[in-house]
Design a protein that fits this description.
This protein is mainly beta. A hairpin with a 2-residue loop joins β15 and β16. The longest helix is centred in the N-terminal third of the chain and has 10 residues. The radius of gyration is 26 Å and the shape is globular.
């Protein structure tokens, strides 16, 4: 353990540690389903909430503090250590959790796309596919009611989750209530959001049907967004021992891409976009379905099971400066977990054991794009086919986690998983030059790689101090396997068999609780995450060393990420009779000291080997903090103001190119009131970027000179009305 952690633990030793609770810690005479089994939509939430004190949570109040339809404003304001970005108005989203990059970039050690290394769930259904890629264009963020993020390697329960785990839950119908709702939001840049909902809740069942339509013209040229969403959520309590949960989602999402701005464009506030993207009608389109069906059963007070089956299918088309791609992935899977509880020598031992398996198959066809001779000034056309590949990916994860209660309010928890990923590819793009008997020139039509039985342990020691304070120390491991595109070297016709999965190991200590008669809530975490076997590239030159023949990936070096995260909320004022009901300020801070360690990269253009060792990790701000206050009055008026600061950061791994720091000031004012007892109305008006600051929604790391996806640099307004009638 390095000096950073030794110093932290020395300070921490004066406080003690509290064990992380297992999913079920209450002892009851009878084991009812709602108390002991993790339902479909709780499979990941309860594991993260109760077993991991580093899990950060957002509720409806946090999400609705901003516009409530993009999610990055809520994440970036309220979750230290987590950064959410987007490539277009409402597409190309990605998470950066504690500095974990998303693979290899074209000119360095980070990339921006596909959120590789992250494991994401929606209502217990994996959004991350069997290959480890997470696309979020089809998620209706406007229907999300809560979000939980487990920060850092989480392989012991979730398999290939080197960066962490994100679980999102959609809204649900209230029990014993029947209601209809209509929400309307409008804003600058042609933003329109319409949501219609029907909620039917009984004593033992509830169904919610939600339809949303979201449109925006964007503030840049070629930046429109159109989305249609349908969500159907049902819960059915069959008996005290048995429950069924279900989810069905449909999305039709189309986002134009204006492309990234060059550094010079961004500095001059030239927001005309990237001509190569616009000419190719750059966009992302997803039309598809996502479903899940879960069954929970309590056998007795010692044993319960939750099993869910899930799947998704969509049509996925995308174009950019490099061409056009069509994909049609079909993903299916199962997750089954047993909850167990025993009494061992008078001490409670509880645990979980289960499996998760996924399989995905898709065909990916790539096309060149050519000028339209009938309309030279219009968009380019789809031209000749340049690739045709089918990919089948299978992921298996067997996991178990246990918690033992010890004397003096200590708990010890430990977990272990075995994960396997198997990728098989078939090249259907025929090339006569490859169809020869010579092994030196023959390109295989089918190939793949399997990464077997990767072991991900986790241990934690925790201690409680009464009901309002706890502390913990933990160690966890996770992996990210190479995706299918990393496995083959086209120039040589050889499989890249030496490429290994990246490995993440994290030490963490922290504390959370409440003070001052529960008016002050806080959470503090110190961590050291090391990501080893990071992928880098090697270039091979021709005999005269005058040109690059080809490049391929190798494992090279690591990232050493040390950081601190602090979050506090204080109920400064509360009254049942005064004008103000509540006044609650909040603040959070993230400090990052992330460095490359023994990391080398070879440029494909210059073939010069660059050594990034000791330099700051690109794409991570050293300091980020947020300040805000929420207030509500007894007359139904509510308001919030929040201030966000993000430090300057390097955007190339050599540290030469950096962003500028920026700060944003946002505010919202609303009014809630009941009419005729059954009708609830919520009216609001908000303003973003009140100070007119230039800022970015995303930065393309190591892709100079193209770099920035900007946000609006002027104040912009939005407002809306939410109506709900309860029968």
């Amino acid at each position: 353990m390095n000096k950073f952690l030794l110093a932290s633990l020395a300070l921490f030793g004066t406080v003690g540690v509290q064990a992380q609770n297992s999913t079920n810690t209450k002892t009851t005479d009878s084991l009812k389903i709602k108390e002991t089994s993790r339902l479909l939509n709780e499979v990941t939430v309860t594991e993260m909430s109760n077993k991991n004190k580093s899990a950060a949570k957002l509720g409806m109040a946090d999400i609705k503090r901003g516009q409530g339809v993009f999610m990055d404003d809520a994440i970036n304001t309220s979750m230290p250590g987590v950064l959410m970005m987007r490539r277009s108005v409402s597409g190309g989203q990605q998470f950066n959790i504690r500095g974990y990059g998303n693979g290899l970039g074209p000119r360095g050690a980070n990339n921006n796309f596909d959120s590789q290394g992250l494991k994401m769930y929606l209502n217990g259904i994996p959004v991350t596919d069997a290959e480890g890629i997470t696309i979020m264009d089809d998620i209706d963020f406007g229907s999300i009611s809560n979000v939980e993020v487990l920060k850092g390697p989480a392989g012991s329960a979730y398999g290939f989750a080197i960066a962490g785990v994100v679980n999102m839950q959609t809204q649900k119908a209230e029990l014993n209530k029947v209601s209809i709702g209509q929400n309307v939001m409008v804003g600058d840049f042609g933003l329109r959001r319409y949501t219609t909902s029907l909620q039917v809740g009984g004593n033992h069942s509830s169904i919610l049907v939600n339809y949303g339509k979201q449109l925006s013209d964007g503030f840049m040229p070629h930046n429109e967004s159109t989305k249609d969403f349908v969500n159907i959520v049902g819960d059915f309590q069959l008996s005290e021992k048995q429950k069924i949960s279900s989810y069905l989602g449909y999305a039709n999402s189309y986002d134009q891409r204006a492309g990234e701005l060059t550094v010079d464009q961004y500095n001059k506030k030239d927001y005309s976009g990237n001509p190569a993207y616009i000419k190719n009608n750059a966009h992302s389109e997803i039309i598809g379905y996502r479903f899940g069906l879960g069954h929970s059963y309590a056998f007795n007070k010692y044993l319960a099971n939750t099993t869910s089956v899930f799947g998704s299918s969509n049509k996925n088309t995308a174009s950019s400066a490099g061409g056009w791609t069509d994909k049609s992935p079909v993903n299916v899977g199962i997750r089954s977990a047993f909850d167990l509880r025993f009494n061992v020598f008078g001490r409670e031992l509880s645990g979980t054991a289960g499996i998760e398996a996924q399989q995905q198959t898709y065909e990916s066809i790539g096309y060149n794009m050519v000028a339209n001779n009938l309309d030279p000034n219009g968009y380019n056309l789809i031209g000749s086919m340049k690739s045709n590949m089918t990919v089948t990916s299978k992921t298996y994860n067997a996991f178990t986690e246990w918690n033992l209660k010890l004397p003096f309010m200590f708990d010890f928890s430990a977990g272990l998983s075995l994960s396997t990923m198997d990728n098989h590819l078939e090249d259907r793009f025929y090339n006569a030059a490859n169809n020869t008997a010579s092994p030196e020139t023959n390109k295989p039509s089918a190939y793949g790689a399997k990464y077997s039985n990767l072991v991900s342990p986790r241990i934690a020691l925790n201690r409680s101090f009464g009901q309002n304070f706890s502390a913990y120390a933990s160690y966890s491991v996770g992996y990210r396997a190479p995706v299918s595109g990393n496995l083959f070297i086209p120039y040589t016709g050889k499989i890249n068999t030496d490429l290994k999965p990246e490995k993440g190991s994290q030490y963490e200590i922290g504390a959370k609780g409440s003070l001052l008669n529960s008016r002050l809530a806080f959470q503090v975490a110190l961590f050291n995450a090391v990501f080893s076997d990071k992928m880098s590239s090697v270039s091979v030159a021709n005999a005269g060393n005058t040109a690059t023949l080809y490049s391929y990936l190798v494992n090279s070096g690591s990232q050493d990420n040390k950081g601190a995260e602090v979050m506090v909320k204080y109920l400064a004022y509360q009254s049942s009779n005064g004008f103000f009901k509540t006044v609650q300020p909040f603040a959070n801070l993230t400090y990052n000291d992330f460095k490359y360690d023994n990391y080398q990269y070879q440029s494909s253009s210059t073939r010069v080997v660059a050594d990034y060792s000791g330099l700051a990790v690109a794409g991570v701000a050293p300091l980020t903090y947020n300040l805000g206050v929420d207030a509500a009055t007894k007359y139904g008026v509510y308001a919030n103001v929040n201030y966000n600061y993000r430090d300057a950061m390097p955007i190339t791994s050599d540290g030469v190119n950096k962003t500028k720091s920026f700060d944003l000031l946002n505010a919202k004012l609303g009014y809630q009131r009941s009419f005729l007892k059954n009708l609830m109305a919520d009216m609001y008006l908000g303003a973003n970027n009140i100070m007119g600051t230039q800022y970015y929604n995303m930065v393309f790391i190591n892709q100079m000179p193209d770099a920035y996806i900007p946000g609006p640099d002027k104040i912009n307004y939005y407002g809306g009305v939410n109506l709900k009638y309860t029968f």
